[in-house]
Specification:
31% of the residues lie in helices and 24% in strands. The protein has 20 helices and 30 strands. α1 packs across α2 and α10 packs across α11. The structure holds 5'-O-[(S)-ethoxy(hydroxy)phosphoryl]adenosine. Its EC number is 6.2.1.1. Keywords: Acetylation, ATP-binding, Ligase, Nucleotide-binding.
């Protein structure tokens, strides 16, 4: 029996039981056998749900890039580590070997050091999906700087908020980016953001699209000449197990984005372990995750998890629809991809197109398919199974979160029989619990409740940057002695989990978490708007889309409504990013409120979803008559 690599169901159950009975010795064995340490830990785990505080492999010393790069050089130096597929089909793919990756990361690390970045400093990375993004991430880890990657689709305001929250010293960006047939002026967005960021000392700029951009003297520096002059050897900084590795922002239901802090050793062990098992990675496989490194999926399953296993990981710069809807499948054929990991929203979008786009390509290299980010509907699951997997590839529906660092509930291919829409069973070491609203655990099967995790796991986020109190309140206050996920789930008769969706005010649009409160704040800045409320409603492709109810000030009521809608969406785009734009905006004279003034979002959700047969009791409302008005004017198409 191997703790690290599970190959069949009986083995899973044995390993799982062991991981729960004795978590410390379970993780200790894995850590010992599969990673490189400079010093062993003094204690595998210490924790306190009250504080809350979690420490894994306390006292151990390591550098994650030695585990992801250096230790492979002897046996896999010429193997492709990163396979870069550019946006444009006419540009050649790049096969970056482990040797080359080592050289590039060392050079980049030396550039950072030379520009004054030290251990513990925060470096913001705002780059498209080009090799420099992965290299920058690893270069930070090499010298012990904390990376904070901001998805390059976020607006200048959103970027500035994130830079300021963790007072980043350095920003790495590019002149622009390619996205399908568009060119995006990233540097322009950066310049606007930096008007309000005092902590940034230097901006390193990658040349990608070769346009004219303005470079601010003394602040902005082209990266390539610096790399050309940098030494290709850089000793790794020896880090403590619990030193922060990165910050990654995720939306909360209220307030500013939360800078989730992940630390070094536990994150590494868990990302590597889950990658190996969930994707059953074998030496000659070519693994492709279509996510962006700007999200946790890219951190754990494009960069750290695959590289820690010496894998070949594909990085794709483009979009699934360019030059046409066959692009994903063209890439699978071209690089003989063996594992393919994507989001349900992408599957739904592709399933809407002609099946010729899939049939045209030879997908016989594929062995395992995965999904992540939101619940997958049955129709999309079957389309994926039949058209992409040709009914011979196990599908792993992986449930996890930015906060969990790695996959938590997922089938293990060839072991766990899959059922569409079920994430199935917890991975070893993960102890889920379903809770009722009174705070009691719901035992037994065929039940549903709020999903919690009742024992620490190595890759859990340790805090929210600069706001430990918020960390405590958000995740550890609802249920004593447990981590609360914010998701609802059901457990079926055999113990399989199915995630039913968020139970808070976070809406998942095309796989992106969006808190409704920050969007409302953006709308309310519009001079004609008095008040607003945002809810999610089911959407064929996006999974959920955003519906806005907006009350106008008297002065705004005479304005052209279509223009107002455009202005409101522009405001959201500026404040947060285009992904947060509303699909539907209904102007209304009021919102349903309780006597204490709280907006009854349940009613708004039902109206937006055209599900008004069972609107529930409205008698406790302060203004029950508004429900009628809202239903009459609902935007249904
Ligand atoms: C949702 C992405 C159903 C869930 C890795 C969670 C899912 C949120 C699944 C985290 C899944 C993720 N089935 N829902 N397989 N995977 N979710 O932080 O609501 O971007 O809380 O992490 O996505 O999103 P995040």
């Amino acid at each position: 029996m191997s703790n690290y690599h599970i190959k069949h169901l009986e083995e899973y159950f044995q390993v799982y039981r062991k991981s729960v009975r004795n978590p410390e010795s379970y993780w200790e064995e894995i850590a010992e056998e599969h990673f490189l340490w400079h010093k062993r830990w003094d204690e595998v785990l210490s924790y306190d749900f009250e504080k809350p505080e979690f420490k894994w492999f306390k006292g151990a010393k390591l550098n994650i890039t030695e585990n992801c790069i250096d230790r492979h050089l002897r046996t896999r130096g010429d193997k492709t580590a990163i396979l870069f597929e550019p946006n444009d089909t006419t540009e050649k793919a790049q096969h970056i070997s482990y040797n080359e990756l080592h050289e590039r990361v060392c050079k980049m690390a030396n550039v950072l050091k030379d520009k004054g970045v030290e251990k513990g400093d925060r470096v913001c990375i705002y780059l498209p999906m080009i090799p420099e993004l992965a290299v920058s991430v690893l270069a930070c880890a090499r010298i012990g700087a904390i990376h904070s990657v901001v998805f390059a689709g976020f607006s200048s305001k959103a970027l500035a908020t994130r830079i300021n929250d963790s007072s980043c010293k350095m920003l790495i960006t590019s002149d622009g980016s390619f996205r399908g047939n568009k060119k995006i002026d990233l540097k322009g967005i950066v310049d606007a953001a930096l008007e309000n960021c005092e902590s940034i000392e230097n901006v390193l700029v990658v040349k990608r699209i070769e346009t004219n951009i303005s470079m601010q003297n003394g602040r902005d520096i082209w990266l390539q000449p610096l790399l050309d002059n940098a030494s290709s050897s850089c000793e790794p900084e020896i880090m403590d197990a619990e030193d922060p590795l990165f910050i990654l922002y995720t939306s909360g239901s209220t307030g500013t984005p939360k800078g989730m802090v992940h630390t070094t050793a536990g994150y590494m062990v868990y990302a590597a372990f889950t990658f190996k098992n969930v994707f059953q990675y074998r030496e000659d496989d070519v693994y492709w995750c279509t996510a962006d490194i700007g999200w946790i999926t890219g951190h754990s399953y494009i960069v750290y998890g695959p590289l820690a296993n010496g894998a070949t990981t594909v990085m794709f710069e483009g979009v699934p629809s360019y030059p046409d809807y066959g692009r994903f499948w063209e890439i699978v054929e071209k690089h003989k991809v063996t594992q393919f990991y994507t989001a349900p929203t992408a599957i739904r979008a592709l399933a809407k197109e002609k099946t010729e786009y899939v049939e045209k390509y030879d997908l016989s290299s594929l062995k395992i398919l995965g999904t992540v980010g939101e619940p997958i509907n049955e129709e999309a699951w079957h389309w994926y199974d039949e058209n992409v997997g040709k009914k011979k590839c196990p599908i792993v529906d992986t449930w996890w979160q930015t906060e969990t660092g790695g996959i938590m509930i997922s089938p293990i291919p060839y072991s766990t029989p899959a059922i569409p829409t079920f994430a199935t069973l917890p991975l070893p070491g993960i102890q889920p619990a379903l809770m009722d609203e009174e705070g009691k655990e719901i035992k037994g099967n065929q039940v549903d409740g709020r999903l919690c995790i009742k024992f620490p796991w190595p890759s859990m986020a340790r805090t929210i940057w600069n706001n430990h109190q918020r960390y405590k309140e958000t995740y550890f206050s609802a249920y004593k002695g447990m981590y609360f996920t914010g998701d609802g789930a059901l457990r079926d008769s055999v113990g399989y989990y199915r995630i039913t969706g968020r139970v808070d005010d976070v809406v998942i649009v095309s796989g992106h978490n969006l808190g409704t409160a920050p969007i409302e704040d953006a709308i309310n800045e519009h001079p004609a708007v008095a008040e607003s409320a945002i809810v999610g409603y089911p959407h064929e492709i996006k999974g959920s889309a955003l519906y806005g109810y907006v009350i106008l000030k008297e002065t705004g009521e005479t304005r052209n409504q279509d223009n107002l809608r455009k202005e409101i969406n522009q405001l959201i785009s500026d404040r947060i990013g285009p992904i947060a734009k509303l699909d539907k905006i209904q102007f209304t004279s009021g919102l349903p409120k309780t006597r204490s003034g709280k907006i009854m979002r349940r009613i708004l959700r039902k109206i937006a979803s055209n599900d008004t047969s069972n609107i529930g009791d409205t008698s406790t409302l302060l203004n029950p008559e508004i429900v009628e008005e809202l239903m009459e004017n609902v935007i249904s198409s």
